[in-house]
Structure formats: C-alpha cells, structure tokens
C-alpha cells in the first residue's frame, strides 16, 4: 500500500497485521480520488479539512493530506490502528497536520470538535451494517460543511437507505467494493 499522488507520492504505508482490518486497495483508492478530483464533483483539496472515519492505517486521510488538505482528523476504535496510522503520518511528514481519537461511533457518545469538515471519508468494516451509523453520527454531530462531501466505501451488497439529510451524487462499483458519494441535502 502506498500514497498515490501529491507531496508524499510513492511513500509506502504500513498496515495493521492479522486483525481482520481490510485496507482500501490502491485501485479503489485511486478511483475514489479520481472521482473526487476529476469526476462530476471537481473537489479541490487545497486548504480543506478532512475527517477519516474508521481510519485504520490512515491511508485515505494521508492521501487527502498529500493532495493538499491542511488538516485531517483520524477516528478509529482500534488502538493498534491508531499506532500504525501515527507511524504512517510521521513517515509522510504529516504528523503536525493531524489529530486522532479512539471512538466507537455506534455508542452515540457526543463527539466534541469545533470544526466542520469539507471532506469525510468513511471505510467501515464490511458486513457490519455501519452505513446508518455513519449518517447518524455525521448528522448528530454536525460534522459536514454545507458544501462538503461524504464518501463511504463499503461492500457492494450493502444497501444504503438515505435519510433526508443527504443526497446521492455518485455511486461506483469496483469488484466487491462500492463507493458512495453524498452531499448535504
């Protein structure tokens, strides 16, 4: 696994070993960022703030930082993932552009952060029915800017039932993976 583009292009990223964590494949990560930058969205990373939910090794958030995001907040429930993510951030020179928190979004605890995000990237474990939890968490904590984008990576068999707070703008399938691109309604 590596950083695909930007200032840290080509840097190898460590992964969490043997814990059932499934990192985003380089092919899917490249497709996700291509849709954001070159598809109907035309997203500009320069100066944006990013939230990487279910961050694992930090691959998605680090890619965002490499492409020009000014800040990324990493959220995961696994202590081991956080340690690997911090190592990857240090290796890429992005430690000062990030914060981390250990949290299970299903517990409905308040999430106190003073900023809203331009981009939220969520890559939950497949087959765990996290899609509704993600939408509820983002809405309940008012995390996405009015012109922001929420991208969810999940198993292609998962069904997303949108609430009134989000609108689907793009959906792409790559093998067993689907990428869902949402904006606030």
Approximately how much beta-strand content do the residues carry? 25-35%
> What is the second-level CATH architecture?
3-Layer(aba) Sandwich
CATH superfamily: Vaccinia Virus protein VP39
Elements, N to C (H/E): HEHEHEEHEEE
The largest sheet, given as strand count, sense and whether it forms a barrel, is: 7 strands, mixed
Overall structural class, as computed from helix and strand content, comes to: alpha/beta
Q: What is the spatial order of strands in the main beta sheet?
A: 3-2-1-4-5-7-6
What is the first-to-last residue Cα distance?
A: 34 Å
* Secondary structure: number of strands: 7
Rough outline: globular
Helix content: 10-25%
Structural domains: how many: 1
Number of helices, where a helix is a run of at least 4 consecutive DSSP H or I residues = 4
Radius of gyration from CA coordinates: 15 Å
Mean pLDDT: 91
Low-confidence stretches: none
Write the layout of secondary structure elements.
Elements (H helix, E strand, L loop, with lengths): L25 H13 L10 E5 L5 H8 L4 E6 L2 H14 L5 E5 L14 E6 L8 H10 L3 E12 L10 E9 L2 E8 L1
Parallel strand pairs: 1-2, 1-4, 2-3, 4-5
Antiparallel strand pairs: 5-7, 6-7
What does this structure look like?
With 185 residues, the protein is an alpha/beta fold. It has a single domain (26-184), classed as 3-Layer(aba) Sandwich (Rossmann fold), CATH 3.40.50. The chain has helices at 26-38, 59-66, 79-92, 131-140; strands spanning 49-53, 71-76, 98-102, 117-122, 144-155, 166-174, 177-184. A seven-stranded mixed β-sheet has the order 3-2-1-4-5-7-6, with helices on both faces. β2, α3 (79-92) and β3 (98-102) form a beta-alpha-beta unit. The protein starts with 25 loop residues before the first helix and ends with a strand.
């Amino acid at each position: 696994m590596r950083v695909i583009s930007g200032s840290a292009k080509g840097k190898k990223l460590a992964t969490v070993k043997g814990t059932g964590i499934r990192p985003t494949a380089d092919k899917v990560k490249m497709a996700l960022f291509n849709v954001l930058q070159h598809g109907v969205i035309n997203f500009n990373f320069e100066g944006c703030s990013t939230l990487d939910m279910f961050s694992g090794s930090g691959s998605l958030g680090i890619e965002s930082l490499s492409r020009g995001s000014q800040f990324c907040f990493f959220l995961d429930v696994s202590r081991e993932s956080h340690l690997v993510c911090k190592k990857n951030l240090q290796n890429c020179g992005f430690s000062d552009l990030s914060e981390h928190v250990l949290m299970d979004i299903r517990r409905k605890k308040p999430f106190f952060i003073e900023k809203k995000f331009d981009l939220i990237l969520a890559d939950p474990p497949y087959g765990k029915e996290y899609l509704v939890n993600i939408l509820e968490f983002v809405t309940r904590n008012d995390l996405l800017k009015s012109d922001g984008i929420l991208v969810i990576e999940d198993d292609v068999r998962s069904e997303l039932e949108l609430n009134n707070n989000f609108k689907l703008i793009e959906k792409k399938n790559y093998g067993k993976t689907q990428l869902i691109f949402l904006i606030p309604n």
